[in-house]
Amino acid sequence: MKNNIGTLILTIITLCILNVTNIVAQDLVPFEVVNNDEVGLTVAPYSKWGMAVGDINKDGYPDIFCIRWNGADNYSRLYLNTGGHFQDISQQTPLPQIEGQSISPETRTTVFVDFDNDGDQDISFGTPEQIYLLRNDDNTFVDVSDETGFRGQKPGGFISTWEYSVGGWADYDLDGDLDCVVSQQNYDNLYLFRNDGDHFTDVATEAGLDGTVLSEQSRLSWFDIDLDGDPDLYSAYNFFRNDNGVFTDMTEEIGLGGLEYVAYREFLDFDNDGDFDFFKVVGASEDPGENQLWENRDGVFVNVTGDVGLQLNADRYRSMTVGDFDNDGDVDIFVQLNIDPSLDVLLINDLLEDGSRGLANVADFVEITKTGDRKGSAFLDYDKDGFLDIYLPSAEFNHILYHNLGGNGANWVVLMLEGTVSNKDAVGSLVKLCAGGKEQFRYTRAGNGWLRQDNPHVHFGLGYETSIDSIVIRWPLGQKQVLTDVAINQYHKIKESDPTSVKKLDGGVLPVEFQLEQNYPNPFNPSTTITYHVPEKANVVINIFDISGRQVKELINRQHAAGSYSIDWSGKDDKSNPLPSGIYVYLLRSGNTSIFKKMLFVK
After folding, report:
1. Which of 133, 391, 490, 570 could bridge to 527 as Cys pair (CB 3.0-4.6 Å)?
2. Run means of pLDDT, 10 residues per run, the chain, 603 residues
3. How many Cβ atoms from other residues are within 10 Å of residue 186's Cβ?
């Protein structure tokens, strides 16, 4: 199956199982099961449920945290990827002490995150008794939970365990560092831990989440559902819009009210139209409801399960993950089962000649072969060859690592994003890739829901396109960066290019109208400051034009609370190229308001 004949056979099989003759399909790629010993995935002698995939030393090779669910006197395993080979560094963590001496099993959701913005990833996780934050000091981890205030409260009553789950990390208040949402069973409220630099404060009450009872609240996730630039929060059934750091239930208005049982779910841009659709699966054959795909149509979700030919019966699903496994430019879906002898499900996403889309299970035909007790799944490129592999924790095999053999000729690109003004992990970035007249979109996250975190880098399949027209990154704090001439079939480290950031000015009475002040200094070299005033919550855009009227820089495009702000400009265009001396115009727009002023750049 590694040669051209094998690829041809897989293509023919794909056409048969999709039962269409007009499909525009990328050749499928087969997987092979990796020998655990050969890649250093040592025995993990405990019952498993879930994993986290990250990049703790930012070398591009994904690392794995394999979660201990049950197993007295044992602990989870942390595997450092040293170039396609894993090294167990669990002893460089306090996991043996924390978990090995726990009175209760069931370590819960683990998330890799650079909470202190120092350039390496730390570890957060929950247990039945408490939540933990382990700081990464050169791949040695130190428990800083107490000193940072990253702690939950023991509920009253006769309760022996209260089961904390880390829902994920996001910069919900857009201040440049990552905050964390945590659920606690037997406790009606959520914890929203605001990151204040070196300490965490629970601000659930002021964020509108105090007293909120969320169905299946252990399944919490962050995602910018409405794409307005700030991360929203959702559980299995409830969706909360973030309005300047305060959350409002928007479940009904986006068409997702009345969802039946949801075990695992994910937002993905299934149809490459720039907004993100919603896929969900149930957790057992007896659960109410169906496995469904909901299309995002101008902010309202519509059930299109039948339209895409999705035929996925209710079954004992224990995880899912999304990614472009065949590098054809369309996001596919892997759904993981926990029942023997059933195989896992790999749903290929293909564009038909009539412009519609289809989903079909191709697991049987790409060598997805392992069955048994397996819980959790992730896409990751463990060997950095540009094709997404699959990792599953397993009872019988300890680990199942499916190596994607590629070989279909499809091209790809991977971005490793690093914030400079925004959070270092660049969580909350929206990335658009344009190639061959087609657009693709990705959104970066820290945590993908209950008991899982997958691919830490931004991966795009390009199909047979041999060049990229552009990549546009909307960084978490609103800066837009445009990349051109990006080489294909490579990993690229991309830093947030412009250190310019919006600064909110302290004190004073709130403005009563939009105002734009004259920049200072003026004339200027090398940089100048633009101050402006916003009377109410609004989206504010400031663009800079040269004397001919050509836009050279989008300085800011983001939501603002009422207040006064300033932003610096260093005389560079959207591609970070220095501009010539001359007169420039800066224009503020918000709703029906437009204000402009002139400035002089002198070299």
Report:
1. 570
2. 40 41 59 98 94 97 95 91 98 94 81 97 93 97 98 77 89 94 81 94 91 72 96 94 94 95 95 97 89 97 95 91 97 92 92 85 94 94 98 96 96 96 95 96 95 95 96 90 92 80 74 94 90 92 94 90 90 86 96 95 88
3. 12
* Secondary structure of residue 183 in the 3-state scheme: strand
pTM for the whole structure: 0.82
Are 222 and 233 a contacting pair, CB within 8 Å?
Answer: yes
Is 46 within 8 Å of 69 (Cβ atoms)? yes
Question: What distance in Å separates the CA atoms of residue 193 and residue 181, rounded to the nearest whole number?
Answer: 6
Structure tokens of 23?
Answer: 């499909």
Q: Are strands 452-453 and 47-54 parallel, antiparallel or unpaired?
A: parallel
Does residue 119 contact residue 135 with C-beta atoms inside 8 Å? no
DSSP code, position 509: P
Q: Which burial class, exposed, middle or buried, applies to 527 when counting CB atoms under 10 A from its CB (0-12, 13-18, 19+)?
A: middle
| N residues, the chain | 603
Q: What is the DSSP letter of 206?
A: T
Give the single-character DSSP code of 92.
G
Place of tokens 């009175």: 103
Rounded distance between C-alpha atoms, residue 45 and residue 134, angstroms: 23
Q: CA dist 272 to 140, 277, 434, Å?
A: 41, 10, 11
Rounded Cα distance between 140 and 124, Å, is: 14
Task: Count CB atoms within 10 A of the CB of residue 362.
Answer: 21
Q: How many CB atoms lie within 10 A of CB 145?
A: 19
